[in-house]
Structures are given as structure tokens and as C-alpha cells.
Amino acid sequence: MTTVEHAAQDGTGGPAGPRGRVPFPVVDEVSRHCSQEEEPETVHIEIHLPGPVDRARLTAAFTEALRRHPRVLMREAPGPWYRRRYEWELTAEPDVRVVSFPPPGPDALRTARTRTLQEAPPLSASPPIRLEVVEGTEGTEGAGPAPARGGTTLLLTINHTALDGPACLRVLATAAELYGGRDNTPSAPPVRVPDAPEPGDGNAAPSNWTPPARVAQGSPETSPGNGLIVTELGVPRRPKGSPYTVNDQLMAATALMVAHWNREHGARPRPLRITMPVDDRPRGADMPIGNGTRLVEVTFAPEEVDASRMGELLRRTATRTRALKSAERPQLGYGAALLTAPVVPVAWRAAVTRGLRRAAGPWTSTVLLSNIGRIPYSLDFGEEAGRAHAVWFSAPARTPRGLTVTTASTAGRLHVSLRWSSSLLGHGDGGHLRDLFEHYLHATQEREATGG
What is the pLDDT of residues 99-115, one digit of tens each? Predict the structure, then answer.
């Protein structure tokens, strides 16, 4: 049973154990083994609303949304060192105050973002998330657009060992419906007819046994955790009937961005490997809650990442992503399922997993691209607060990968987050990478003029 399969009796990712306990699924256990304070595994969701919110009403709506999605209300159960599994302990109510309202001011949003990147909600208290409501701030010192005067930002921080971004966005959609009284039924995803492979699309990807390129080191910072830049762009156009999707354009732009950065920093050309989460869950009120994505890896040879052959790069990307999305595969692969088999004490498995992770560092992918896609919910918080006009996500960026790109589209705009390990890059590096990504994403729309 995977993380996303729910038992009817408790709404969780597996059969309920004693006292409402649920064994950690594979993804949760591996994340728990490898957690560290220096670079916490947090996911951040940032929702911008045009108007103010009522504090008491929002707190009540979000708390009720947690009750309606009981898989969120959980904490790690204590146990002896020789136990065979970690377990989640379900709770009827939150253990801690989940919603907070930091003092408003010009630095309030930037400070809240910093907390998101540096402080993970503890697994020992239910739920392992927190919601900060930043009211009416403006300046963000280059970290991206801020709410308009009188607007509100909802900033949700998630401990990624327990939950992922799409699951918690579902909880926020329920809270919006309870708060605003307006329907947040998810819109239907676009229907795409599979394309037949084009001549030349069958070029084999480089072997995954070859260590991929690393993102070249820039100007690291002394602060712990991750750095973050968010930006808003237009959703890239593509010709009608194109064999590739917007996701493929984002993939190509990410590969070209990293290749350009590495050339500038004198790195030797190596294959680029991009990790891409795939999420097949429904988005309705019964959406399975937990860590529900599976990870696939798209690999490119150095000579394939060429902006002068953009059309070829886009078609090749489309072929590879389609094949990977359609393949049946455990969330973290067969090796992770074997590592988490409860045949020895979980503490022993933790030591083995951490050792293997260090040994596999050279084979870790170059960068992670997480495309949430079009936000399926209206996120309408009623007449005064209004409807979300921007939604950003960011995924953790621990080394050795050290860089993630997360995208989502809202209100016809593309919201992009670049997040990096402070031990690899600095804020100026993040700004340059953002500019490169914007440049190459625009170039994916001009394939006919660039040798496509």
C-alpha cells in the first residue's frame, strides 16, 4: 500500500494500528531517516489575496478544514529504539496553535519566508504545519512581489516528512470554502490526446548510471537553510497541436538555465538529470492526503541542451517525460521499498539509509523541477478578502542537489520559485538564475526562429 492509498476507517495512508496509529509509508520513512536541522525539509505555499481577512473567522475555518482532512492531524508516536517502524499517531484536535498573525510591517513577509526556509514544524506536535497570515505588507527586498496595500498573504509551512504541497493546498481550498462560503470545486484538468512519436524522438537518454552534472558553486552565504526568490511571468505560449506541453517548456528552460550557469562557472560538461515529481491524485474533497507524488528523472546529454536547436530539444523532452509519466514505478523506486521493509529495527535501517544517501551523492540529480500546473481551485475567500491572484510553492533544496525550481499558474500568470542551499549559492546567484530561466523560457516560444 502506498502513501496515497487510504483506509476507510481512519482516512490515512494505511490500516490503523493500536490507538489510531499508522505506520510511516516509504516516502515518510526515508525523509525521516535523512532529516537534519541545518537544511530542514520544508515546503512553502504562499497565497496572495487582494483584501483583508477576519482573524477569528480564518482561524476557525482553517481549524475546521484540518478536521475534515484527518490525515493532517497527526504527530510522530514515541517508541523504543528497537521498534520496526515509525508510526503516525492521529489526533482529534491540533496540539498547538496552527494559525498566527505576525506583526505587520515592511519586513513581515520577508521574515515569514525566512522562517519557512529555516524552521520546520516539529513532527512531535499535531499537525506538522503552520499558517502565518501576513497582513498589508509591501516591501520584500527583491524576494518577489508583495501584497498590495490592504492585501493579505497566507504563508503555509509544511514539514515534508509528513505532507506535500498539493495535499496541503487541498486543505487550504477547503478552508477557503468554509471561510468565504463559495464553491472551491476543482476545475477539470485539460484533456490532451497522446501524440505519436515523431521521427528522431527515439534518441536514447544518457545512462542513469553516469554521475550527472552538479550545479556549479556560486557565492555561498553563511546563513543556514535555504535561500528563495519568487517571480511572476507569463505562461509560455505554444503552437496549437504541439507535441510538447508547458511542462516540457519548463523542463527545457530549466536544463538550459543550469547548462548556461555551469558554462559561466567553468564546469566540465556532463549529462543533466532533472528530477520531476508526478502526481496522479484526484483534487476533490476526498483527495488522499500525505506525500503522494512519485519521482522520475529526465536525463539530457550535454550536446542535447542547445538553445539553437530548441524545437528538437522540446520534442525530445516531450517524448521522455511522456514515457516516464506512463511507467509504473514505486514512489521512490524499488530500492527505497526494500530499505524500508520492517525486518530489522528502524534505527538500524536509518543508519543504513543515511550511509547509502551519502554514498549515492554523486548520482543525485542535478536539479529538481516541480511543476504544480494550473491551480485547480478558485481559492475564493469571499467578498472582502477576495480570490487568490498569486500562488507560489517552493520545494526543499538540500545538497548535494542544492537547487529546486517550482512553478504554478494562477489567474493566467506563471508563478516561479527558485530555492537553493545557502551552502551552494547566494542571493545574487539566485537572481541571475531567475533571469536565465526567464530568458530561456521565453526562447521556448520562439522555436521556429531558433532552428526548431
Answer: 999 998 889 999 999 99
Listed in sequence order, the residues at least 6 apart from 38 whose beta carbon sits closer than 8 Å to its beta carbon are 224, 225
Query: Got the DSSP string for 195-262?
Result: PPPPTTTTPPPPPTTS--PPPPP----SSSSEEEEEEEEEPPP--TT-SS-HHHHHHHHHHHHHHHHH
pLDDT digits (tens, 9 = 90+) for 43-57: 999 999 999 999 999
Residue 239, in any domain of the structure:
yes
Q: Is the overall model pTM greater than 0.85, yes or no?
A: yes
Expressed as residue numbers, the domain containing 321 is: 226-375+397-450
Which residues make beta-bridge pairs with 88? Answer: 22, 76
Q: Is residue 200 part of a domain?
A: no
> Domain total for the chain?
2
* CATH classification of the domain holding 242: 3.30.559.30
Task: Tell me how crowded residue 168 is: count the other CB atoms within 10 A of its CB.
Answer: 23
d(CA 37, CA 225): 8
Residue with cell string 497541436: 241
Q: Under a CB-based contact definition with an 8 Å cutoff, are residues 113 and 144 in contact?
A: no
